[in-house]
Amino acid sequence: MASIRALVTGGAGFIGSHLVDRLLGDGHRVTVVDNFANGRLRNLEQHAENPRLTVHEADVANSDLAPCFQGVERVFHLAALADIVPSIEQPEAYHRTNVDGTFHVLEAARAAGVRRFVYAASSSCYGIPDVYPTPESSPASPQYPYALTKHLGEQMVVHWGQVYGLPVVSLRLFNVYGPRARTSGTYGAVFGVFLAQKLAGQPFTVVGDGSQTRDFTFVTDVVDALVCAADSEFSGEIMNVGSGGSYSVSRLVELLGGPAVHVPKRPGEPDCTRADTQKIERLLGWKARVSFEQGVAIMLENIEYWRDAPVWNPESIEQATKKWFDHLKAAD
To answer: Tens digits of per-residue pLDDT, 223-250?
Structure first.
């Protein structure tokens, strides 16, 4: 395929930096837009001398993005605020980044005449599903502001496709993990929490009894799905991206190796996530390739990345999640 000019919002983040790896590896020219609130230049340091990479420090919610979009043919919109607890504490910030920011990226893409727009949506829009594996036809039922704002962003993306003819695809990502997974200061993604605990010689803090299962999807499989969506001619489609399997937290602890302690189960979280991936398999011919066991082994090989990540214990988790418990218990 001929070289194209792609733009990745959030390109210094976890998934975004892996996507940049892939696009540059495929010979494309890549523009990264990132405000470095969560992204890290360290994630792109392997490309420091690559003339086909341009990095703009900009906030999608309040920056003039037009100069970044000049000549861009494909946009991958990954920039977002993640994590549940801070979204409950700071809903305005999440709306500004995940909703207003998506609006600004869509408008910049429309003005630039972008040929393809791929949005990284979240499977959290399903809330606590009634059906497993969960198909795209399942109703949206966001349980907290992060999930809601990501879903509102998706609705805007599809709407811009319908009203303005922008060729858009939205991919609902299920429990993405892999090297460079977030190491933010908020209690969140299980892999970052567990790997930092393992490095520090501390027990894994397992939520509930550990029987809850997740459709853990390896990051290179997710990147492949993003690229397949951009390469396709489909527009206006929403597709799940998951491994199609579901693995317990107890199994993760077993694979990582080490003692565990248990913390209370959190309200608003499903006991299981599992993607129905028939649609993306049918339309794009995409299927996850990396097994859970292979993925965890790769994480352990790259464990030093989490050396500086926060090390959580039951007491600090209780403090960090108190507002979550208080808010959602009150909602009941």
So the answer is: 999 999 999 999 999 999 999 899 999 9
**What are 293's two structure tokens?**
């066991």
Rounded CA separation 5/250 (Å): 43
Domains and CATH numbers, the chain: 5-176+218-241 (3.40.50.720), 178-214+245-272+290-331 (3.90.25.10)
Q: What are φ and ψ of residue 107, in 5° steps?
A: -65, -40
Point out the residues that are catalytic.
146
* DSSP secondary structure letters along 57-90: E--TTTS--GGGGTT--EEEE------SHHHHH-
Among 61, 83, 63, 80, CA closest to 13 = 80
**What is the total residue count of the chain?**
332
Instruction: Report the half-sphere exposure of 218 (CA within 13 A, side-chain side).
Output: 16
DSSP three-state, residue 99: helix
- Eight-class DSSP state of 131: S
- Give Cβ neighbours of residue 273 (< 8 Å, ≥ 6 apart): 123, 126, 129, 134, 174, 175, 213, 214, 215, 242, 246
Please state, for a pLDDT cut of 90, what percent of the chain lies above it. Answer: 84
Paired sense of beta strands 237-241 and 168-173, if any: parallel
Confidence of residue 329 (pLDDT cuts 50, 70, 90): low
Cis preceding-peptide flag for 133 (omega within 30 of 0): yes
Contact (Cβ atoms closer than 8 angstroms) between residue 149 and residue 157: no
At 241, is the secondary structure helix, strand, or coil?
A: strand
The answer to whether residues 206 and 262 touch, using CB atoms and an 8 Å cutoff, is yes
Q: What angle do CA 115, 120, 125 make, to 5 degrees?
A: 135
One-letter amino acid at 288 equals A
CA 143 to chain centre: 17
Q: Which residues pair with 8 in a beta bridge?
A: 32, 76
Look at the pTM and tell me if it is higher than 0.90: yes
Start-to-end CA span in the chain (Å):
53
